[in-house]
Structure formats: structure tokens, C-alpha cells
Amino acid sequence: MKKILIHLLFILLVVGLGALIGVSNVPGTWYQSLAKPPFNPPNWIFGPVWTALYVLIGIAGARAWLSAPASGRTQLWFGQMALNFLWTPAFFGAQSMLLGLVVIVPLLLAILAFIRMSWTADRVSALLFVPYALWVGFATLLNLSLFLLN
Questions:
Q1: Phi and psi for 95 in degrees, rounded to 5?
Q2: 3-state SS string over 9-75?
Q3: What are phi and psi for residue 83, nearest 5 degrees?
Q4: What pTM does this model have?
Q5: Domain segments of the chain: what residues?
Q6: How many CA atoms lie within 13 A of 55 on its CB side?
Q7: Tell me: the pLDDT tens digits for 76-111?
Q8: CA-based, 20 to 30 A from 22: which of 49, 52, 93, 150?
């Protein structure tokens, strides 16, 4: 029962904080006015994708916490989460593509490091982070493209 509660707590915190940050930093007219690359996805896709990813991230965080709450892997999970939650205010809130890049590149590296650290310790957590790594890799390319085009 304790494991289920910890999983639910992690999922609710990650999804809830992610949603709160999202509604506090709505893209708005600034983002709409930017020149976008041809591979820019429609705006409606971001909410569902991030919600699904946040559930996977929350599960991986709970697993790391349950296996070793003070481990480097758990600390890395919290570090990447801080960078994740910082990107939206940096990019949309500050309306800065450069600041977004300054945050998203270390975020991607932290995600990849978490996958690497988890690969032998907890393969499930590593695999839960693979879609996240792919999406943030794509988001990094998109952020860079927006920076270069504007």
C-alpha cells in the first residue's frame, strides 16, 4: 500500500506542478508571432504529450525514491525535474529562446544521465525515461530552430 501511495504522490505532484506551470506561462501572442520550422507540431499536441510524459516521469521518480531516496540517481531525478519545470518560465514566461536553450540542453543531458544511471539499477525506470528523452531531444531541436529563425 505504501508503494502505491508514493507512486500516486509522485505522479500527482509532477502532473500537478507541470500543469500549474503550464497555465501560468501560456504561450500567447509572442509565441504565435514567431517564425516556426516546418516540423513545428500543432499547439494542441503539447498538453496531452506532456501529461503522458509526466505520468511516466512520476513513476520513474517514485521507483528511484523507493529504491534509494538519498542516491545519486534520485538526486538526478529531482535535478532534471527542476530543469524541466524551469524551462517553461524561461522560454514562455521570459519570452527568451536563448534562455530556453540554456535550460533545455542541461535538461536533456540530465535525462540521458538518469537513463544511463538507471539502466543497470532499474531498467524499468530507464525505459520510462526513453520517450521523455526523445521528446526533449525534439523540443531542443525545436527550441534551437526557433532561436535561429527569430
A1: 50, 50
A2: HHHHHHHHHHHHHHHHCCCHHHHHCCCCCCCCCCHHHHHHHHHHHHHHHHHHHHHHHHHCCCCHHHH
A3: -65, -40
A4: 0.95
A5: 2-149
A6: 5
A7: 999 999 999 999 999 999 999 999 999 999 999 999
A8: 150
Q: Give the separation between CA 82 and CA 13, rounded to whole angstroms.
A: 13
**In whole angstroms, what is the distance from residue 142 CA to residue 133 CA?**
14
Each residue's pLDDT tens digit, 113-137: 999 999 999 999 999 999 999 999 9
Contacts of 87 (CB under 8 A, 6+ apart): 100, 103, 104, 107
| φ/ψ (deg, to 5) at 71 | -75, 165
Say which residue the cell 498538453 belongs to.
Answer: 47
Class of domain 2-149: mainly alpha
Which of 119, 85, 73, 87 has the alpha carbon at shortest distance from 15?
Answer: 85
Cell numbers linked to 44: 494542441
- At residue 8, the 3 state secondary structure works out as helix
